[in-house]
Amino acid sequence: MPIRLRVEGLCAKRGEDLIFHDISFVLAAGEALIVTGPNGSGKSTLLRVLAGLLTPESGSVRLDDTSADIGHPRELCHYLGHRNAMKHELTVEENLSFWKSFMGDSPGGSGIGIEEATEALGLAGISHLPFGYLSAGQQRRMAMAKLQVAYRPVWILDEPTAALDAAADRIFAGLVERHLSAGGIVVAATHQPLGVTARELRMVGFAGVGELV
Questions:
Q1: Closest by Cα among 146, 169, 148 to 95
Q2: Domain count, the chain
Q3: What is the domain extent for residue 177?
């Protein structure tokens, strides 16, 4: 059954400072949301709340219309943050094998093989290399392969195309487009276009508690 990501009245603080207040939106299967705004406006904090890494001050995040028995929406989400979350001393294959096993597949889909995932990102034949040997752009693309090897219907992406060249941007746009076409949902914070049709949520931030800029 198609899922729906429903966010209602989210509010988050960092220490005593209000980062954002009353964020609400609904995304149906096949829809994408681009989160934009200046540095410090709360984009990354919002994504971490959506991914279940931070607890909101108030509000809720839930997935509707899913038959999966889950305790939190994070169980159906992939989160790709600023850091690649890959061990430099391990090979690409060892890193991706860990994530494939650790994440597993959510109900309703299945991940692809490691070699197939690296080939889809234009990096076939180098999965035997230590991750730390790769360039920054190659490392970012290999981190994106995590999205492919374990199935999750919701992708939460923080500056996913950082360090990528134009060709890699197009490859990643193709991955996102195929995910959406298959009924997935994407929420991405980025200063660059993802190359897909998407709604926009612009974060404006706060000058201080209760003072909206």
A1: 146
A2: 1
A3: 4-204
